[in-house]
Protein backbone atom coordinates (compact mmCIF):
# COMPACT_ATOMS: atom_id res chain seq x y z
CA UNK A 1 0.00 0.00 0.00
CA UNK A 2 1.49 3.30 -1.05
CA UNK A 3 -0.21 6.67 -0.78
CA UNK A 4 0.57 10.28 -1.51
CA UNK A 5 0.94 12.52 1.55
CA UNK A 6 -1.32 15.14 -0.04
CA UNK A 7 -4.19 12.60 -0.19
CA UNK A 8 -3.66 11.63 3.45
CA UNK A 9 -3.68 15.25 4.63
CA UNK A 10 -7.18 15.69 3.21
CA UNK A 11 -8.42 13.38 5.98
CA UNK A 12 -7.29 15.80 8.71
CA UNK A 13 -9.09 18.82 10.11
CA UNK A 14 -7.00 21.96 9.59
CA UNK A 15 -3.51 20.54 9.90
CA UNK A 16 -0.59 23.03 10.04
CA UNK A 17 1.80 21.72 7.40
CA UNK A 18 5.44 22.71 6.99
CA UNK A 19 7.42 21.29 4.07
CA UNK A 20 6.57 19.39 0.86
CA UNK A 21 3.26 17.60 0.53
CA UNK A 22 4.08 15.81 -2.74
CA UNK A 23 5.72 12.91 -0.95
CA UNK A 24 5.16 9.19 -1.36
CA UNK A 25 4.26 7.41 1.88
CA UNK A 26 5.42 3.81 1.77
CA UNK A 27 4.45 2.85 5.31
CA UNK A 28 3.10 4.23 8.60
CA UNK A 29 4.18 3.71 12.23
CA UNK A 30 4.10 5.30 15.68
CA UNK A 31 7.24 3.44 16.78
CA UNK A 32 10.57 5.02 15.80
CA UNK A 33 12.22 1.60 15.99
CA UNK A 34 10.13 0.48 13.02
CA UNK A 35 10.85 3.50 10.82
CA UNK A 36 12.29 2.77 7.36
CA UNK A 37 12.82 5.22 4.49
CA UNK A 38 9.46 6.50 3.21
CA UNK A 39 7.66 6.26 6.56
CA UNK A 40 4.97 8.59 7.92
CA UNK A 41 5.72 8.71 11.67
CA UNK A 42 3.02 9.56 14.24
CA UNK A 43 4.28 11.06 17.53
CA UNK A 44 2.01 9.81 20.30
CA UNK A 45 2.18 10.80 23.96
CA UNK A 46 2.18 7.47 25.83
CA UNK A 47 1.87 6.16 29.38
CA UNK A 48 5.63 5.53 29.65
CA UNK A 49 7.33 7.82 27.13
CA UNK A 50 6.40 10.52 24.64
CA UNK A 51 6.68 9.65 20.95
CA UNK A 52 7.66 13.28 20.23
CA UNK A 53 11.00 12.48 21.89
CA UNK A 54 11.68 9.99 19.08
CA UNK A 55 10.77 12.26 16.16
CA UNK A 56 14.39 13.20 15.44
CA UNK A 57 15.42 9.54 15.51
CA UNK A 58 12.57 8.75 13.10
CA UNK A 59 13.83 11.49 10.76
CA UNK A 60 17.36 10.04 10.92
CA UNK A 61 16.01 6.62 10.01
CA UNK A 62 14.38 8.01 6.86
CA UNK A 63 10.86 9.09 7.84
CA UNK A 64 9.59 11.51 5.18
CA UNK A 65 6.77 13.06 7.23
CA UNK A 66 5.85 13.33 10.87
CA UNK A 67 2.53 14.03 12.59
CA UNK A 68 2.92 15.95 15.86
CA UNK A 69 0.66 17.64 18.37
CA UNK A 70 3.39 19.73 19.98
CA UNK A 71 6.47 21.39 18.49
CA UNK A 72 9.67 19.40 18.09
CA UNK A 73 12.47 21.99 17.70
CA UNK A 74 15.06 19.51 16.37
CA UNK A 75 13.02 18.88 13.20
CA UNK A 76 13.61 20.87 10.02
CA UNK A 77 10.88 21.16 7.38
CA UNK A 78 13.61 21.10 4.74
CA UNK A 79 14.27 17.42 5.48
CA UNK A 80 10.92 16.09 6.67
CA UNK A 81 7.34 17.32 6.27
CA UNK A 82 5.95 18.38 9.64
CA UNK A 83 2.20 18.05 10.13
CA UNK A 84 0.91 19.61 13.34
CA UNK A 85 -2.58 18.65 14.55
CA UNK A 86 -4.48 19.05 17.82
CA UNK A 87 -4.54 15.28 18.51
CA UNK A 88 -1.97 13.06 16.81
CA UNK A 89 -3.66 9.80 17.93
CA UNK A 90 -6.94 10.94 16.33
CA UNK A 91 -5.01 11.88 13.17
CA UNK A 92 -3.50 8.39 13.09
CA UNK A 93 -6.95 6.85 13.48
CA UNK A 94 -8.26 8.95 10.57
CA UNK A 95 -5.35 8.22 8.23
CA UNK A 96 -4.47 4.58 8.87
CA UNK A 97 -7.68 2.79 7.75
CA UNK A 98 -7.58 4.82 4.52
CA UNK A 99 -3.88 4.02 4.06
CA UNK A 100 -4.74 0.31 4.12
CA UNK A 101 -7.79 0.79 1.82
CA UNK A 102 -10.38 0.16 4.57
CA UNK A 103 -10.00 -3.63 4.87
CA UNK A 104 -12.57 -3.58 7.68
CA UNK A 105 -15.20 -2.58 5.13
CA UNK A 106 -14.35 -5.52 2.86
CA UNK A 107 -14.43 -8.31 5.45
CA UNK A 108 -17.42 -9.53 7.44
CA UNK A 109 -16.36 -8.51 10.93
CA UNK A 110 -17.46 -10.11 14.18
CA UNK A 111 -16.45 -8.25 17.36
CA UNK A 112 -16.69 -9.81 20.81
CA UNK A 113 -16.64 -7.69 23.96
CA UNK A 114 -17.21 -8.52 27.64
CA UNK A 115 -15.10 -9.09 30.75
CA UNK A 116 -14.74 -12.86 30.30
CA UNK A 117 -15.25 -15.37 27.53
CA UNK A 118 -14.08 -13.30 24.55
CA UNK A 119 -11.20 -15.56 23.51
CA UNK A 120 -13.25 -18.73 23.97
CA UNK A 121 -16.19 -17.32 22.00
CA UNK A 122 -13.98 -16.21 19.08
CA UNK A 123 -12.45 -19.70 18.85
CA UNK A 124 -15.90 -21.30 18.88
CA UNK A 125 -17.11 -19.01 16.08
CA UNK A 126 -13.96 -19.71 14.07
CA UNK A 127 -14.62 -23.44 14.26
CA UNK A 128 -18.24 -23.02 13.14
CA UNK A 129 -17.50 -20.66 10.24
CA UNK A 130 -14.71 -22.93 9.02
CA UNK A 131 -17.05 -25.92 9.16
CA UNK A 132 -19.43 -23.84 7.02
CA UNK A 133 -16.66 -23.56 4.43
CA UNK A 134 -15.50 -20.00 5.07
CA UNK A 135 -11.94 -18.72 5.18
CA UNK A 136 -11.52 -17.12 8.60
CA UNK A 137 -9.18 -14.73 10.42
CA UNK A 138 -9.01 -14.31 14.19
CA UNK A 139 -7.47 -11.58 16.36
CA UNK A 140 -7.25 -11.86 20.15
CA UNK A 141 -5.36 -12.49 23.36
CA UNK A 142 -3.56 -15.67 22.36
CA UNK A 143 -2.58 -14.97 18.76
CA UNK A 144 -3.66 -13.71 15.38
CA UNK A 145 -4.69 -16.32 12.85
CA UNK A 146 -4.97 -15.63 9.14
CA UNK A 147 -6.61 -18.85 8.04
CA UNK A 148 -3.93 -21.22 9.46
CA UNK A 149 -1.08 -18.72 9.55
CA UNK A 150 -0.14 -17.80 13.14
CA UNK A 151 1.14 -14.35 14.10
CA UNK A 152 2.20 -13.31 17.62
CA UNK A 153 0.31 -10.58 19.50
CA UNK A 154 1.07 -8.07 22.25
CA UNK A 155 -2.43 -6.91 23.15
CA UNK A 156 -5.89 -8.50 23.08
CA UNK A 157 -6.91 -5.84 20.56
CA UNK A 158 -3.94 -4.39 18.67
CA UNK A 159 -3.45 -0.69 17.97
CA UNK A 160 -4.97 0.80 14.84
CA UNK A 161 -1.86 0.34 12.68
CA UNK A 162 -1.28 -3.32 13.54
CA UNK A 163 -5.00 -4.02 13.31
CA UNK A 164 -5.54 -2.41 9.91
CA UNK A 165 -2.38 -4.02 8.56
CA UNK A 166 -3.54 -7.43 9.77
CA UNK A 167 -7.01 -6.94 8.29
CA UNK A 168 -5.41 -5.90 4.99
CA UNK A 169 -3.35 -9.11 5.06
CA UNK A 170 -6.57 -11.03 5.64
CA UNK A 171 -8.20 -9.38 2.62
CA UNK A 172 -5.13 -10.18 0.51
CA UNK A 173 -5.26 -13.82 1.66
CA UNK A 174 -8.90 -14.16 0.59
CA UNK A 175 -10.28 -14.30 4.14
CA UNK A 176 -14.03 -13.63 4.36
CA UNK A 177 -14.52 -13.30 8.11
CA UNK A 178 -12.46 -11.45 10.73
CA UNK A 179 -13.47 -12.49 14.23
CA UNK A 180 -11.91 -10.37 16.92
CA UNK A 181 -11.86 -9.63 20.61
CA UNK A 182 -12.67 -5.99 21.25
CA UNK A 183 -11.28 -5.02 24.64
CA UNK A 184 -12.65 -2.09 26.59
CA UNK A 185 -9.20 -0.45 26.31
CA UNK A 186 -9.47 -0.70 22.53
CA UNK A 187 -12.91 0.92 22.53
CA UNK A 188 -11.81 3.81 24.75
CA UNK A 189 -8.54 4.32 22.85
CA UNK A 190 -10.34 3.83 19.52
CA UNK A 191 -7.94 1.13 18.34
CA UNK A 192 -10.87 -0.17 16.26
CA UNK A 193 -11.14 3.02 14.15
CA UNK A 194 -12.06 2.03 10.60
CA UNK A 195 -13.54 -1.34 11.59
CA UNK A 196 -17.14 -1.82 10.59
CA UNK A 197 -18.62 -4.62 12.61
CA UNK A 198 -21.36 -6.80 11.15
CA UNK A 199 -21.92 -8.71 14.38
CA UNK A 200 -21.26 -7.41 17.90
CA UNK A 201 -21.31 -9.82 20.83
CA UNK A 202 -21.62 -9.01 24.51
CA UNK A 203 -20.56 -11.86 26.81
CA UNK A 204 -20.76 -10.38 30.32
CA UNK A 205 -19.72 -7.51 32.53
CA UNK A 206 -18.03 -8.03 35.88
CA UNK A 207 -15.22 -6.34 37.73
CA UNK A 208 -11.87 -5.81 36.01
CA UNK A 209 -9.65 -3.01 34.70
CA UNK A 210 -10.81 -0.41 37.23
CA UNK A 211 -7.25 0.94 37.16
CA UNK A 212 -7.96 2.09 33.60
CA UNK A 213 -11.69 2.89 33.64
CA UNK A 214 -11.96 4.04 37.29
CA UNK A 215 -15.67 3.26 37.67
CA UNK A 216 -17.92 0.36 36.69
CA UNK A 217 -20.16 2.89 34.88
CA UNK A 218 -17.30 4.05 32.68
CA UNK A 219 -16.24 0.45 32.05
CA UNK A 220 -19.82 -0.40 30.99
CA UNK A 221 -19.99 2.65 28.73
CA UNK A 222 -16.73 1.54 27.11
CA UNK A 223 -18.22 -1.86 26.25
CA UNK A 224 -21.44 -0.20 25.02
CA UNK A 225 -19.37 1.68 22.45
CA UNK A 226 -19.20 -1.50 20.32
CA UNK A 227 -23.00 -1.51 20.04
CA UNK A 228 -23.16 2.22 19.38
CA UNK A 229 -20.75 1.70 16.48
CA UNK A 230 -22.67 -1.31 15.22
CA UNK A 231 -25.76 0.87 15.00
CA UNK A 232 -24.20 3.81 13.17
CA UNK A 233 -26.48 4.91 10.36
CA UNK A 234 -23.64 6.02 8.03
CA UNK A 235 -22.37 2.44 7.77
CA UNK A 236 -21.58 1.03 4.33
CA UNK A 237 -22.64 -2.45 5.44
CA UNK A 238 -25.99 -4.19 5.61
CA UNK A 239 -27.31 -7.01 7.80
CA UNK A 240 -25.92 -6.20 11.23
CA UNK A 241 -26.74 -8.11 14.40
CA UNK A 242 -26.08 -7.65 18.11
CA UNK A 243 -25.80 -10.89 20.09
CA UNK A 244 -26.34 -10.13 23.76
CA UNK A 245 -26.28 -12.06 27.04
CA UNK A 246 -29.58 -11.16 28.70
CA UNK A 247 -28.75 -12.98 31.94
CA UNK A 248 -26.21 -10.24 32.57
CA UNK A 249 -27.66 -6.99 33.92
CA UNK A 250 -25.55 -4.92 31.55
CA UNK A 251 -27.11 -6.78 28.59
CA UNK A 252 -30.03 -4.34 28.65
CA UNK A 253 -27.62 -1.41 28.30
CA UNK A 254 -25.96 -3.01 25.28
CA UNK A 255 -29.40 -3.71 23.78
CA UNK A 256 -30.42 -0.08 24.34
CA UNK A 257 -27.59 1.08 22.07
CA UNK A 258 -28.31 -1.56 19.43
CA UNK A 259 -30.71 -0.22 16.84
CA UNK A 260 -29.91 -3.21 14.62
CA UNK A 261 -31.61 -6.62 15.15
CA UNK A 262 -30.70 -8.25 18.47
CA UNK A 263 -30.31 -11.97 19.18
CA UNK A 264 -30.64 -12.36 22.93
CA UNK A 265 -29.34 -15.40 24.79
CA UNK A 266 -29.85 -16.54 28.37
CA UNK A 267 -30.14 -19.56 30.61
CA UNK A 268 -32.11 -18.08 33.48
CA UNK A 269 -34.50 -15.94 31.41
CA UNK A 270 -36.54 -16.15 28.28
CA UNK A 271 -34.48 -15.17 25.23
CA UNK A 272 -34.13 -15.87 21.50
CA UNK A 273 -31.58 -18.58 22.35
CA UNK A 274 -31.73 -20.51 25.60
CA UNK A 275 -29.98 -23.55 27.02
CA UNK A 276 -31.82 -26.24 28.96
CA UNK A 277 -31.09 -29.70 30.38
CA UNK A 278 -27.52 -28.59 31.09
CA UNK A 279 -25.30 -31.38 32.37
CA UNK A 280 -21.78 -30.30 33.29
CA UNK A 281 -19.35 -33.20 33.63
CA UNK A 282 -15.61 -33.55 34.04
CA UNK A 283 -15.22 -34.64 30.43
CA UNK A 284 -17.58 -32.13 28.85
CA UNK A 285 -21.07 -30.71 28.88
CA UNK A 286 -24.34 -31.65 27.25
CA UNK A 287 -27.32 -29.36 26.83
CA UNK A 288 -30.11 -28.37 24.43
CA UNK A 289 -30.23 -25.00 22.71
CA UNK A 290 -33.70 -23.75 21.89
CA UNK A 291 -34.23 -21.13 19.20
CA UNK A 292 -36.53 -20.24 16.31
CA UNK A 293 -34.99 -23.17 14.39
CA UNK A 294 -36.17 -25.67 17.02
CA UNK A 295 -33.95 -27.61 19.42
CA UNK A 296 -30.24 -28.38 18.98
CA UNK A 297 -28.96 -31.20 21.19
CA UNK A 298 -25.29 -30.76 21.98
CA UNK A 299 -22.67 -33.05 23.47
CA UNK A 300 -19.48 -31.04 23.88
CA UNK A 301 -15.92 -31.69 24.99
CA UNK A 302 -15.69 -28.33 26.80
CA UNK A 303 -17.17 -28.01 30.24
CA UNK A 304 -18.41 -25.47 32.80
CA UNK A 305 -21.57 -23.40 32.90
CA UNK A 306 -19.58 -20.41 31.65
CA UNK A 307 -18.83 -22.30 28.46
CA UNK A 308 -22.53 -22.92 27.91
CA UNK A 309 -22.84 -19.13 27.73
CA UNK A 310 -19.89 -18.88 25.35
CA UNK A 311 -21.49 -21.50 23.10
CA UNK A 312 -24.82 -19.62 23.09
CA UNK A 313 -22.98 -16.46 22.02
CA UNK A 314 -21.15 -18.29 19.24
CA UNK A 315 -24.35 -19.95 18.04
CA UNK A 316 -26.08 -16.55 17.95
CA UNK A 317 -23.33 -15.10 15.75
CA UNK A 318 -23.29 -18.11 13.43
CA UNK A 319 -27.06 -18.08 12.95
CA UNK A 320 -26.97 -14.32 12.33
CA UNK A 321 -24.52 -15.04 9.52
CA UNK A 322 -26.79 -17.67 8.02
CA UNK A 323 -24.95 -20.83 9.07
CA UNK A 324 -27.29 -23.83 9.16
CA UNK A 325 -28.06 -25.26 12.64
CA UNK A 326 -26.82 -28.73 11.60
CA UNK A 327 -23.46 -27.25 10.56
CA UNK A 328 -23.25 -25.37 13.88
CA UNK A 329 -23.87 -28.61 15.79
CA UNK A 330 -21.34 -30.58 13.76
CA UNK A 331 -18.65 -27.94 14.34
CA UNK A 332 -19.29 -27.56 18.08
CA UNK A 333 -19.18 -31.29 18.65
CA UNK A 334 -15.71 -31.39 17.05
CA UNK A 335 -14.44 -28.51 19.18
CA UNK A 336 -11.91 -29.68 21.75
CA UNK A 337 -10.39 -26.78 23.68
CA UNK A 338 -8.84 -23.32 23.75
CA UNK A 339 -5.21 -23.29 24.92
CA UNK A 340 -4.96 -22.46 28.63
CA UNK A 341 -8.70 -22.46 29.25
CA UNK A 342 -9.63 -25.29 31.65
CA UNK A 343 -6.71 -27.19 30.09
CA UNK A 344 -5.91 -30.53 31.69
CA UNK A 345 -2.26 -31.35 32.30
CA UNK A 346 -1.85 -35.09 32.01
CA UNK A 347 1.48 -36.50 33.11
CA UNK A 348 0.36 -39.79 34.58
CA UNK A 349 -0.51 -38.38 38.02
CA UNK A 350 -3.34 -39.70 40.22
CA UNK A 351 -4.95 -36.27 40.68
CA UNK A 352 -6.14 -33.64 38.18
CA UNK A 353 -4.17 -30.56 37.22
CA UNK A 354 -6.13 -27.83 35.47
CA UNK A 355 -4.51 -24.70 34.00
CA UNK A 356 -6.97 -21.86 33.45
CA UNK A 357 -6.80 -18.20 32.46
CA UNK A 358 -9.19 -16.97 35.19
CA UNK A 359 -7.75 -13.60 36.14
CA UNK A 360 -10.87 -11.75 37.29
CA UNK A 361 -13.08 -12.37 40.33
CA UNK A 362 -15.91 -13.66 38.15
CA UNK A 363 -13.60 -15.86 36.06
CA UNK A 364 -12.07 -17.34 39.20
CA UNK A 365 -15.45 -17.94 40.81
CA UNK A 366 -16.72 -19.65 37.65
CA UNK A 367 -13.77 -21.92 37.30
CA UNK A 368 -13.79 -22.79 41.00
CA UNK A 369 -17.50 -23.58 41.10
CA UNK A 370 -17.02 -25.77 38.03
CA UNK A 371 -14.06 -27.54 39.67
CA UNK A 372 -16.13 -27.99 42.83
CA UNK A 373 -18.96 -29.57 40.84
CA UNK A 374 -16.50 -32.06 39.37
CA UNK A 375 -14.24 -32.68 42.38
CA UNK A 376 -14.13 -35.98 44.19
CA UNK A 377 -11.26 -34.86 46.44
CA UNK A 378 -9.83 -31.52 47.62
CA UNK A 379 -9.34 -28.43 45.48
CA UNK A 380 -5.87 -26.88 45.73
CA UNK A 381 -5.74 -23.43 44.14
CA UNK A 382 -2.58 -21.73 42.92
CA UNK A 383 -3.15 -18.19 41.70
CA UNK A 384 -1.98 -14.58 41.77
CA UNK A 385 -2.95 -11.16 40.45
CA UNK A 386 -1.18 -9.06 37.83
CA UNK A 387 0.93 -6.07 38.78
CA UNK A 388 0.04 -2.63 37.33
CA UNK A 389 -3.55 -3.78 37.03
CA UNK A 390 -6.77 -3.24 39.01
CA UNK A 391 -5.73 -3.53 42.68
CA UNK A 392 -9.25 -3.75 44.01
CA UNK A 393 -9.77 -7.19 42.50
CA UNK A 394 -6.93 -8.72 44.55
CA UNK A 395 -8.65 -9.16 47.95
CA UNK A 396 -11.85 -10.24 46.20
CA UNK A 397 -9.98 -12.98 44.34
CA UNK A 398 -8.21 -14.00 47.56
CA UNK A 399 -11.58 -14.32 49.27
CA UNK A 400 -13.05 -16.40 46.43
CA UNK A 401 -10.03 -18.71 46.29
CA UNK A 402 -10.30 -19.59 50.00
CA UNK A 403 -14.10 -19.75 49.90
CA UNK A 404 -14.16 -22.45 47.21
CA UNK A 405 -10.70 -23.97 47.54
CA UNK A 406 -9.62 -26.35 50.31
CA UNK A 407 -5.99 -25.20 50.17
CA UNK A 408 -4.80 -21.94 48.61
CA UNK A 409 -1.30 -21.05 47.48
CA UNK A 410 -1.08 -17.39 46.51
CA UNK A 411 1.77 -16.60 44.14
CA UNK A 412 3.02 -14.18 41.47
CA UNK A 413 1.26 -13.52 38.15
CA UNK A 414 3.16 -10.96 36.07
CA UNK A 415 4.09 -8.56 38.90
CA UNK A 416 5.38 -6.09 36.28
CA UNK A 417 6.70 -2.92 37.98
CA UNK A 418 5.23 -3.80 41.40
CA UNK A 419 6.78 -5.63 44.35
CA UNK A 420 5.35 -9.22 44.31
CA UNK A 421 5.06 -9.17 48.12
CA UNK A 422 2.86 -6.06 47.97
CA UNK A 423 0.46 -7.70 45.50
CA UNK A 424 0.36 -10.85 47.64
CA UNK A 425 -0.34 -8.78 50.76
CA UNK A 426 -3.40 -7.31 48.98
CA UNK A 427 -4.59 -10.84 48.16
CA UNK A 428 -3.95 -12.06 51.70
CA UNK A 429 -6.25 -9.37 53.13
CA UNK A 430 -9.17 -11.01 51.28
CA UNK A 431 -8.13 -14.52 52.31
CA UNK A 432 -7.98 -13.58 55.99
CA UNK A 433 -11.24 -11.63 55.93
CA UNK A 434 -13.08 -14.56 54.37
CA UNK A 435 -11.61 -17.04 56.84
CA UNK A 436 -12.77 -14.84 59.74
CA UNK A 437 -16.19 -14.25 58.18
CA UNK A 438 -16.75 -17.96 57.47
CA UNK A 439 -15.24 -19.02 60.80
CA UNK A 440 -13.08 -21.66 59.09
CA UNK A 441 -9.40 -22.48 59.32
CA UNK A 442 -8.36 -23.64 55.88
CA UNK A 443 -4.70 -23.87 54.95
CA UNK A 444 -3.17 -21.16 52.81
CA UNK A 445 0.36 -20.15 51.96
CA UNK A 446 2.01 -17.23 50.22
CA UNK A 447 4.88 -18.33 47.94
CA UNK A 448 6.06 -15.53 45.61
CA UNK A 449 8.04 -17.86 43.32
CA UNK A 450 5.46 -19.40 40.97
CA UNK A 451 7.45 -22.58 40.30
CA UNK A 452 7.81 -23.19 44.03
CA UNK A 453 4.08 -22.50 44.50
CA UNK A 454 3.12 -25.03 41.82
CA UNK A 455 5.58 -27.55 43.31
CA UNK A 456 4.03 -27.13 46.76
CA UNK A 457 0.49 -27.59 45.42
CA UNK A 458 1.43 -30.72 43.49
CA UNK A 459 3.25 -32.17 46.51
CA UNK A 460 0.13 -31.63 48.63
CA UNK A 461 -2.19 -33.25 46.08
CA UNK A 462 -3.60 -36.70 46.85
CA UNK A 463 -5.66 -39.20 44.88
CA UNK A 464 -8.61 -37.53 43.06
CA UNK A 465 -7.75 -33.99 44.19
CA UNK A 466 -7.82 -31.11 41.71
CA UNK A 467 -4.90 -28.69 41.48
CA UNK A 468 -6.19 -25.55 39.79
CA UNK A 469 -3.46 -23.24 38.51
CA UNK A 470 -5.20 -20.02 37.53
CA UNK A 471 -4.36 -16.67 35.94
CA UNK A 472 -1.82 -17.34 33.22
CA UNK A 473 -3.49 -19.94 31.01
CA UNK A 474 -1.74 -19.92 27.62
CA UNK A 475 0.92 -17.42 28.70
CA UNK A 476 4.48 -18.63 28.29
CA UNK A 477 6.17 -15.89 30.28
CA UNK A 478 6.34 -14.13 33.62
CA UNK A 479 6.74 -10.33 33.46
CA UNK A 480 9.06 -9.16 36.24
CA UNK A 481 10.30 -5.66 36.99
CA UNK A 482 13.43 -5.71 34.91
CA UNK A 483 12.89 -8.66 32.59
CA UNK A 484 10.46 -11.16 31.18
CA UNK A 485 11.33 -14.82 31.78
CA UNK A 486 10.00 -17.98 30.15
CA UNK A 487 7.26 -19.51 32.25
CA UNK A 488 4.48 -21.88 31.21
CA UNK A 489 2.21 -23.24 33.98
CA UNK A 490 1.48 -26.38 31.92
CA UNK A 491 5.13 -27.17 31.31
CA UNK A 492 6.14 -26.41 34.89
CA UNK A 493 3.37 -28.65 36.25
CA UNK A 494 4.48 -31.48 33.94
CA UNK A 495 8.11 -31.06 34.99
CA UNK A 496 7.23 -31.05 38.69
CA UNK A 497 5.10 -34.20 38.37
CA UNK A 498 7.92 -35.91 36.44
CA UNK A 499 10.51 -34.93 39.06
CA UNK A 500 8.25 -36.27 41.80
CA UNK A 501 7.80 -39.57 39.98
CA UNK A 502 11.57 -39.90 39.53
CA UNK A 503 12.31 -39.02 43.16
CA UNK A 504 9.40 -41.10 44.45
C1 LIG B 1 -2.13 1.50 28.52
C2 LIG B 1 -1.98 0.95 27.14
O1 LIG B 1 -2.90 0.40 26.60
N1 LIG B 1 -0.76 1.07 26.58
C3 LIG B 1 -0.55 0.65 25.20
C4 LIG B 1 0.10 1.79 24.46
O2 LIG B 1 1.32 2.08 25.08
P1 LIG B 1 1.74 3.58 25.41
O3 LIG B 1 0.91 4.55 24.61
O4 LIG B 1 1.76 3.75 26.85
O5 LIG B 1 3.20 3.55 24.80
P2 LIG B 1 4.58 4.09 25.36
O6 LIG B 1 5.42 2.92 25.62
O7 LIG B 1 4.43 5.12 26.45
O8 LIG B 1 5.14 4.85 24.08
C5 LIG B 1 4.58 6.07 23.56
C6 LIG B 1 4.89 6.17 22.10
O9 LIG B 1 6.32 6.22 21.91
C7 LIG B 1 6.67 5.33 20.90
N2 LIG B 1 8.08 4.91 21.07
C8 LIG B 1 8.48 4.30 22.21
C9 LIG B 1 9.80 3.89 22.37
C10 LIG B 1 10.72 4.09 21.30
O10 LIG B 1 11.91 3.75 21.35
N3 LIG B 1 10.26 4.72 20.17
C11 LIG B 1 8.97 5.14 20.04
O11 LIG B 1 8.62 5.67 19.00
C12 LIG B 1 5.67 4.19 21.04
O12 LIG B 1 5.59 3.39 19.86
C13 LIG B 1 4.40 4.97 21.31
O13 LIG B 1 3.78 5.39 20.14
O14 LIG B 1 0.35 1.45 23.14
C14 LIG B 1 1.15 0.25 22.97
C15 LIG B 1 1.33 0.01 21.46
O15 LIG B 1 0.12 0.00 20.82
C16 LIG B 1 0.46 -0.93 23.64
O16 LIG B 1 1.18 -2.12 23.46
C17 LIG B 1 0.31 -0.59 25.11
O17 LIG B 1 -0.35 -1.67 25.74
C18 LIG B 1 0.30 -2.13 26.95
C19 LIG B 1 1.41 -3.13 26.61
C20 LIG B 1 -0.72 -2.80 27.83
O18 LIG B 1 -0.36 -3.51 28.73
N4 LIG B 1 -1.99 -2.59 27.60
C21 LIG B 1 -3.05 -3.27 28.35
C22 LIG B 1 -3.49 -2.49 29.58
C23 LIG B 1 -4.22 -3.41 27.40
O19 LIG B 1 -4.34 -2.69 26.42
N5 LIG B 1 -5.07 -4.38 27.66
C24 LIG B 1 -6.22 -4.61 26.83
C25 LIG B 1 -7.23 -5.50 27.51
C26 LIG B 1 -6.72 -6.85 27.94
C27 LIG B 1 -7.86 -7.81 28.23
O20 LIG B 1 -8.53 -7.70 29.24
O21 LIG B 1 -8.06 -8.71 27.43
C28 LIG B 1 -5.78 -5.19 25.48
O22 LIG B 1 -6.53 -4.99 24.51
O23 LIG B 1 -4.74 -5.83 25.41
N1 LIG C 1 -18.53 -16.65 29.75
C1 LIG C 1 -17.74 -16.65 30.79
N2 LIG C 1 -18.14 -16.11 31.97
C2 LIG C 1 -17.33 -16.07 33.04
N3 LIG C 1 -16.09 -16.58 33.07
C3 LIG C 1 -15.62 -17.12 31.93
C4 LIG C 1 -16.41 -17.18 30.73
N4 LIG C 1 -15.70 -17.77 29.78
C5 LIG C 1 -14.50 -18.05 30.31
N5 LIG C 1 -14.44 -17.67 31.61
C6 LIG C 1 -13.31 -17.74 32.56
O1 LIG C 1 -12.46 -16.64 32.20
C7 LIG C 1 -11.17 -17.09 31.75
C8 LIG C 1 -10.77 -16.31 30.52
O2 LIG C 1 -11.58 -16.72 29.43
P1 LIG C 1 -11.34 -16.09 28.01
O3 LIG C 1 -9.90 -16.10 27.73
O4 LIG C 1 -12.25 -16.73 27.03
O5 LIG C 1 -11.83 -14.59 28.32
P2 LIG C 1 -11.40 -13.21 27.71
O6 LIG C 1 -12.61 -12.34 27.82
O7 LIG C 1 -10.86 -13.41 26.36
O8 LIG C 1 -10.24 -12.68 28.67
P3 LIG C 1 -9.23 -11.43 28.38
O9 LIG C 1 -9.93 -10.23 28.95
O10 LIG C 1 -8.00 -11.72 29.09
O11 LIG C 1 -9.03 -11.33 26.91
C9 LIG C 1 -11.36 -18.58 31.46
O12 LIG C 1 -10.14 -19.23 31.66
C10 LIG C 1 -12.43 -18.96 32.44
O13 LIG C 1 -11.90 -19.18 33.72
N1 LIG D 1 -5.35 -9.18 29.18
C1 LIG D 1 -5.43 -9.12 30.61
C2 LIG D 1 -4.89 -10.42 31.07
C3 LIG D 1 -4.34 -10.53 32.45
C4 LIG D 1 -3.70 -11.87 32.71
C5 LIG D 1 -2.88 -11.97 33.95
N2 LIG D 1 -1.98 -13.05 33.75
C6 LIG D 1 -2.13 -10.68 34.25
O1 LIG D 1 -1.03 -10.53 33.76
O2 LIG D 1 -2.64 -9.84 35.00
C7 LIG D 1 -4.66 -7.90 31.12
O3 LIG D 1 -3.68 -7.52 30.49
O4 LIG D 1 -5.11 -7.32 32.09
MG1 LIG E 1 -9.12 -12.74 25.58
Can you characterise this structure?
- The chain is of the alpha/beta class.
- An eleven-stranded mixed sheet has the order 11-10-9-12-8-13-14-15-16-17-18, with helices on both faces. Strands 19-20-24-21-22-23 form a six-stranded mixed sheet, with helices on both faces. Strands 2-7-6-5-4 form a five-stranded mixed sheet.
- The protein is globular.
- 51% of the residues are buried.
- Adenosine-5'-triphosphate is lined by residues 114, 116-120, 141, 156, 181, 203-204, 306, 309-310, 341, 356-358, 362-363, 366-367, 473.
What is the structure about, briefly put?
With 504 residues, the chain is α/β, with parallel strands linked by helices. The protein is built from 17 helices and 26 strands.
Please give the order of strands in the largest beta sheet.
Answer: 11-10-9-12-8-13-14-15-16-17-18
Q: What's the N-to-C terminus distance? A: 61 Å
Largest sheet: 11 strands, mixed
- Please identify the structural class as seen in this structure: alpha/beta
Helix tally equals 17
Low-confidence stretches: none
Strand content: 15-25%
Structure summary, number of beta strands: 26
- The portion of residues assigned to helices is 25-40%
Oligomeric grouping of the chains = single chain
Mean pLDDT: 95
Amino acid sequence: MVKNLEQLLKLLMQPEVKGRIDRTIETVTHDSRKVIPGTLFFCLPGAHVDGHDFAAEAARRGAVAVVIEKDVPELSANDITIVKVSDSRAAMQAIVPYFFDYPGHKLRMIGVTGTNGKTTTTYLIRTILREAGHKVGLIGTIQTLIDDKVLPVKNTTPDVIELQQTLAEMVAAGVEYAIMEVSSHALVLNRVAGCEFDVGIFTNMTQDHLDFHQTVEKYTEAKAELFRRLSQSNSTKKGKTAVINFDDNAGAIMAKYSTCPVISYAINKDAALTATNVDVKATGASFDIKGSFGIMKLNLAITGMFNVYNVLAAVGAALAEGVKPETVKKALEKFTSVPGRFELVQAGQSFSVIVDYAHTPDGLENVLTTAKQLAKGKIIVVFGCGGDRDRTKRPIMGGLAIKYGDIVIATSDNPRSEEPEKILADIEVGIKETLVKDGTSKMYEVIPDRRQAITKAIKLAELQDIVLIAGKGHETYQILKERTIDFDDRQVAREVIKEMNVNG
